[in-house]
Specification:
homodimer, alpha+beta, Arc Repressor Mutant, subunit A, 3-stranded antiparallel β-sheet, about 65% helix, DNA-binding
DNA sequence: TTTTGATACCTTGTATCGCAAGGTACTAAA
DNA sequence: TTTAGTACCTTGCGATACAAGGTATCAAAA
């Protein structure tokens, strides 16, 4: 077990909340994939393209997200994702679930 | 998307913290597998045998846990797991990582 | 005009991990 | 000696994150 293990541990923990993070960010502003990656990177949540694109597609297929194309002055067009009503409802459920887990861990650690 | 989905969301979120939960529980008292399952169930963290046994073996192989056999008056012998020094060190790292993620989510959700 | 670099999209193959289901073994009571 | 309870463990499957590689658009440099 080496130093990478700390990153590995964090990576494991992040896995369960990635979808929650995506919906949370999109709840505040619509965004396109590369933008999302950067925003999450700033928040120290590392996501790579190969993770994010399938995830966005999954969430879109579940009816949580929609998207629209927008031209860019600096490259190819961008696919802006935004929450649907269903997405907002699920986000609220996730809020509850997250709060519950944080409380549970608090108790377990005491 | 039905009511099961809420459980599914919680299940996803729990995934990342299962190892952390195990080490946390064992940090307080040695325990055998069936006992661990019950303790976690009380804390609303559902784990099944097919998940727990391989996980304990992984953690043992990583040097985080050791075990000893103890006779039982009520059935087959029990395999009591306990934290090693390395396990305690990793648990501290997990504490930090968890705190960090909770803070990050707090910020993301604001 | 062609090439290069930047941006942005997406797919494929691999590894990990949780879960459902099934299997073994010990003990005590019926 | 069979059944019930407890405890251990394995196998096969599905979901998902990641690494790596691929396609397409645009603008600026060669």
């Amino acid at each position: 077990m080496n130093e990478n293990n700390i990153e590995n541990i964090k990576s494991q923990m992040r896995k369960g909340v990635l979808e929650y993070c995506i919906l949370s960010v999109l709840d505040k502003n619509d965004a396109y994939a590369s933008e999302l990656i950067n925003k999450l990177k700033e928040a120290r949540i590392i996501v790579v393209e190969g993770t994010l694109y399938p995830l966005l597609t999954r969430q879109k297929n579940q009816g949580l997200l929609t998207y629209r194309w927008e031209e860019s002055t600096q490259g190819p067009p961008r696919k802006y994702y935004s929450l649907t009503d269903k997405g907002r409802t699920v986000l609220q459920e996730m809020d509850k679930a997250w709060t519950e887990i944080v409380e549970t861990l608090d108790i377990l650690r005491k």
